[in-house]
Amino acid sequence: MEQKSKKMSYDAIVIGGGPAGMFAAITMKEHLARVAILEKNDRIGKKLLLSGSGQCNLTHSGNLNEFAGKYGDKGTFLKPAFKGFDNMALLSFFEKRGVSFEQRKDGKFFPKSGKASEILAVLEKELRRSGVDILCNEKAARVIKTENGFRVETKNLKLKSKFLLLATGGMSYPSTGSSGDGYAFAESLGHSVVPVKPALAPVVCKGFEGGSLAGLSFEKVVIGLWRKGKKLRSFEGPLLYTHEGLSGPAVLNNSRDFEPGDILEINYLSGQDRASFEKKLSERASKSLPPKVKRYLREAGLSERFCIDRMKKAGICEGLSISEMGKAERKRLAGFLTEDRIEISRIKGFNIAMATRGGVDTSEINRKTMESKKVEGLFFVGEVLDIDGETGGYNLQAAFSTARLTGNIF
Ligand SMILES: Cc1cc2nc3c(=O)[nH]c(=O)nc-3n(C[C@H](O)[C@H](O)[C@H](O)COP(=O)(O)OP(=O)(O)OC[C@H]3O[C@@H](n4cnc5c(N)ncnc54)[C@H](O)[C@@H]3O)c2cc1C
Fold first, then answer.
1. Which residue of 60, 79, 107, 110 has the smallest Cβ count within 10 Å?
2. How many CB atoms lie within 10 A of CB 221?
3. Which residues pair with 160 in a beta bridge?
4. pLDDT tens-place string over residues 331-363
């Protein structure tokens, strides 16, 4: 016999138990009597546990303007969220509940324990303390706008609420539960969804010859992005060689803009362009005691493995002195060091990307409350929205800050 679904009524229902959903539920419960989170997994916060390789890079140092610059063209949309609840407010929320943080040299904040589980434990405790109903193993299958609010259906439950908050996340790491369900809900309620693609993703490169150098990292390179013979822009940051291509913050942070066929023109000698490298090399070669090529490159800050690789590519034997190099050799070496052109064959997929580009169109959302401009009482928070930040704690901060804004409707 078919079991009848249980009927329940709430003031607010949050779909999705990620950081944005948990924090939105905590915020709503400060104003409303009955609040529930629906989570399709058997527990909340699965992706949060993986964040920062399990250590949780919660946020980053920086002021409002610096933060706003980390989300592509979505900084303006997010400004009220950061104004209302910034990095210091986020750290303070957890510090008041017993978490100590360390700020690393690059500005990233992590809990001192190095455990994302500590962050999740605080959120779970706060949800329980404030009396939010956490309904796990309940996958929202349908959402319907009614005269007085919303109806949400799972396999087992029929829920009613005045407010509905969609916090279903993006599409990255679908095994954590973020598989894009929220986009269909948004569309069914009349919202537009900007097509999604992986962001914060490494790239696979055509005929990549650096595979043998996998694991090699560079503290700072400058990269020019070329498409169909035109330079679109350049950016800089740390770079990592992988077996099949490139990763590291410089690539991850900009991958949202990459397309297969794009050329990344890498300058490993940040601060020195091709001409100035060649000029300095010839000047040094004409002085007394010219060093070996490898030594000269090592002095420029390049690793032994990389120097050998570049020299091999340029056809320069290992024991050669810089004064023994011909003009053609100098030119080839300069090219491989300052204008190394590598073609992207594909951007890695959602199973490896750490964020999602695209999502619910922010132009249809009130940026001061995260409420829909189209449907009263409907809210979108976190990565389900068309926002994605750089690596460094920016995505979690956006999840918490957008969630906190929902309290502004009271
Ligand atoms: C490996 C990895 C490491 C990361 N590290 C960091 C980091 O260190 N710092 C940082 O700032 N960002 C990091 N990020 C990004 C960050 O984790 C996300 O941006 C953030 O989790 C988004 O929060 P959210 O609450 O919007 O969505 P999510 O965390 O994706 O949560 C959405 C939740 O909704 C649930 N859900 C979906 N559909 C339904 C449905 N139909 N019914 C019920 N429940 C549903 C899902 O199961 C999930 O629990 C990382 C991402 C990955 C993948």
1. 107
2. 22
3. 9, 151
4. 999 999 999 999 999 999 999 999 999 999 999
Report the atom number in ligand 1 closest to the C-alpha of 38.
Answer: 43
Residue 345 burial by Cβ neighbours in a 10 Å radius (0-12, 13-18, 19+): middle
Return the ligand 1 atom nearest residue 396 CA.
Answer: 11
DSSP annotation of 290 reads P
The strand pairing partners of 164, in sequence order, are 13, 378
Candidate of 102, 156, 396, 402 to mutate for ligand 1, largest count of ligand atoms within 8 Å of Cβ: 396
Q: Which amino acid is at 74?
A: K
Give the max Cα distance, the chain: 94
Task: Enter the tokens of residue 251.
Answer: 């690539």
Whether 69 and 180 map to the same domain: the answer is: yes
One domain for residues 185 and 48: yes
| Model confidence pTM above 0.90 | yes
321/361 same-domain check? no
Do residues 10 and 107 lie in contact, with contact meaning Cβ atoms separated by under 8 Å? Answer: no
Q: Is 17 helix (H, G, I), strand (E, B) or coil?
A: coil
Q: Look at residue 384 in the predicted model and tell me its pLDDT.
A: 98
**Best of 395, 397, 401 to mutate for ligand 1, by most ligand atoms within 8 A of CB?**
395
Burial class of residue 289 (count of CB atoms within 10 Å of its CB; 0-12, 13-18, 19+): exposed
Tell me how far apart the alpha carbons of residues 79 and 59 are, in angstroms, rounded to a whole number: 16
- Number of helices and strands (H, E) in the chain? 13, 18
pLDDT in tens, 73-85: 999 999 999 999 9
Domains in the chain: how many in total? 2
Tell me the pLDDT tens digit for each residue of 351-397.
Answer: 999 999 999 999 999 999 999 999 999 999 999 999 999 999 999 99
Could you tell me if 178 and 110 lie in one domain? Answer: yes
